[in-house]
Amino acid sequence: xxxxxxxxxxxxxxxxxxxxxxxxxxxxxxxxxxxxxxxxxxxxxxxxxxxxxxxxxxxxxxxxxxxxxxxxxxxxxxxxxxxxxxxxxxxxxxxxxxxxxxxxxxxxxxxxx
Amino acid sequence: xxxxxxxxxxxxxxxxxxxxxxxxxxxxxxxxxxxxxxxxxxxxxxxxxxxxxxxxxxxxxxxxxxxxxxxxxxxxxxxxxxxxxxxxxxxxxxxxxxxxxxxxxxxxxxxx
Lengths: 113, 112
What we know:
The structure holds 2 protein chains of 2 kinds. Helices cover about 0% and strands about 60% of the residues of chain A. By secondary structure, chain A is an all-beta fold.
């Protein structure tokens, strides 16, 4: 089974702090994604990566950056956390094969105070 | 560009009743269609998907969905729901490289 793990289930940070959210997958998938989930808004794509050191902006990249130095690890960075970045963050991987499935991690609930 | 509209934000239903969760989509390119379920305090889990072929697809837990190309819809159905089906359900369209657009979600509440 594909396993997607995220470094923390719950995180509390202060406004202005630099925040790192880590995602690790064990299935050698090329594509990885970061979403944020807010009530009534579904999931919105922040950034995605289709290879090591390659990244592309999603629908709401402002205030975020990403890093992918190794195939299995995709990090989301909040350079200076703000209260409007309080949200649930979900990482996902995608197999570029016949299944076309995304596999999601359990999520990190980030609170910025 | 692609978009997904889930027509009902909340659907309350009694146990053993049938249910339909509605999803319309638009896309300028070919996409694949998915339904995901999220149980309280858990991540997203794939329910079913439409890639090609038969327009009626069956998923886990007795759910099924029908792809209607002319109406650009992909409604989710279950003939008899259980309390354990209480969850949030997301419809999504996905391009070939995996870039997905999700609907806002439908909260299904099954009452005894």
